[in-house]
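@channel anyone free to eyeball this complex?
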Amino acid sequence: MDSLSFRIVNSKNMLRYIIIVSLLFNVCCGYIIFFKTDVCQKIIYKIGFGENPSMVNKRKIEFRCIQGWENTLYKMNVDADIVFFGNSITYESNFQQVFPDLKIVNMGCNKDIIDDLINRAFMIKSVHPKKIFVMGGINNFNATPLDEFKIKYETLVDSIRIYNPGANIFLQSILPVNPTKGVGTIYVDCVNKIKDANEIIENISRNNNCTYIDLFSAYQVNDTLPQKYTRDGLHLYPKYYDIWADVIKPFVE
Amino acid sequence: MDSLSFRIVNSKNMLRYIIIVSLLFNVCCGYIIFFKTDVCQKIIYKIGFGENPSMVNKRKIEFRCIQGWENTLYKMNVDADIVFFGNSITYESNFQQVFPDLKIVNMGCNKDIIDDLINRAFMIKSVHPKKIFVMGGINNFNATPLDEFKIKYETLVDSIRIYNPGANIFLQSILPVNPTKGVGTIYVDCVNKIKDANEIIENISRNNNCTYIDLFSAYQVNDTLPQKYTRDGLHLYPKYYDIWADVIKPFVE
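replying in thread with the prediction:
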């Protein structure tokens, strides 16, 4: 073999070694990515199958705290008149102050999407409420098609009913948003969709022996939430919960 | 160029392309593994620096539920006589039944390690308790060196005190385990270590104006938990909470 051929073959061998090492490294990385993370399940979810693995994982992690929350209430031997069940908009309410003669339990949880509400619907029974006021759906609403919204909301109502067969269930409409302010801006394309969702909630109420409460109309001006009511386009300033209290008063008492 | 040289050069080019693609793939995989997962932080944690990223992430995810739990209690306007604060062993207790004339709130949470208890110590203040009974430390105890245990337990007591400056704090000893049964078996090397940890808790009580309650002695036979008391080597059968109730009775009333 002459000197040139030798150099070519030698450098070819070197390339071969590099490629083998590189391919082995690829296989290791691929193994870690696909089996040690939830990339696989995320791809399955993205193409329209399976549940969002981050959500499933999150719900698993949260569940022991929800159990603790339920257990605390259960062991306090409370007989509630009303449970308010929902996301941060419910969390920030304080209807116990407005209706001091009733035993009211606030079960709001920040950032809850409908899946989260379904996940913890079981906890309502811990206080044996006579009435359950539900508000949910605005979190992740922009990313939720209305047919999916309908299915999930029905599942939520079923879950609440199963655990509380004797309670009266009140489904409160989604509030309007202000799409020019704070987090409200992510709902800029949802102004009319919220009205459609509320029609769906009203229909679900009718078909499931629940009472629909239209809060949307009490707050909206041109189908949106006036700036003065809201700190971020989505959440109410405390004093504007009075409008809510006025609307539900006939159902509460 | 003759035919042989051409083939060598050509195959060399082909190898070059493969190696470039392979290296690019390596870079992408490396990027995903190091920046889109917590591998980096896990390595830092393994070599003794930083906090366990899984724990940090878990606590972040759980926090909104803990907030909801706290908010529910706060808005119920409860003035508690006693809060029982701890892990699943507290969760499974029902001292409200034993002391029906007192307002008792069970704040047990399954699987809580001391870090978790520190994380949610703020929630105790929601019910303005006169007395706080704490039990914690057995979860992850086998993997926790005693000096670390001491630091964390002191932090826990500080956290409880900061949020509840007027309350009396009672630190209850860790219970003995049965290392031949169920989950108790993972504590097979901890029989004496539990006694040492209880001495640490007793010292912390003395130095922090808390009251130490020795439950260990009330349950132990040869430093372990007799089989008949425990369903899994760690948790008590409901009826054997009576022993606990007898020990704490003088402090409760």
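from a first look: Chain B is about 50% helix and 10% strand.
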